[in-house]
Design a protein that fits this description.
Blueprint: E1 11-12, H1 14-30, E2 42-49, E3 55-56, H2 60-64, E4 70-77, E5 83-91, H3 100-103, H4 117-121
Parallel strand pairs: 1-4
Antiparallel strand pairs: 2-3, 2-5, 4-5
């Protein structure tokens, strides 16, 4: 996705993953869906509730934010196993309105992502 917008790939960060995992466990234990108050990194949250639940997602722009270099993920289930929490932490953080134009480039002309059956089965 980032490549389609001319953004370099992200590096996986164990430190960000550890923080994201801790926060996913915190949310799952308390059955919450709130962003953390930490401003040192960007954050996307997803929760899936029940078999027929809804999917809540964070911001696409953080995922492709050009200045962001690292990402880490955490996953936890609620005590009753009916909710799953996914937390993504990004560094440096993005989604600053004043920097949007230089960090969220448009799709590169002629570039279209067409998922293969293999992509869809992952």
């Amino acid at each position: 996705m980032r490549e389609l917008h001319g953004c370099p790939p992200l590096q996986y960060s164990n430190r960000l993953a550890k923080n994201a995992q801790s926060y996913a466990e915190y949310l799952a234990k308390r059955n919450l869906f709130n962003h953390s108050e930490c401003k040192n990194y960007g954050e996307n949250l997803i929760v899936r509730k029940g078999a027929e639940g809804i999917l809540l997602t964070g911001h696409f722009t953080q995922l492709i934010w050009k200045a962001t270099e690292k990402v880490g993920f955490g996953f936890a289930r609620s005590k009753d196993k009916r909710s799953a929490y996914i937390v993504a932490h990004y560094y440096p953080p993005g989604n600053y309105e004043k920097d949007y134009k230089k960090n969220v480039p448009p799709l590169e002309r002629g570039r279209v992502y067409k998922p293969t059956n293999m992509d869809l089965s992952k």
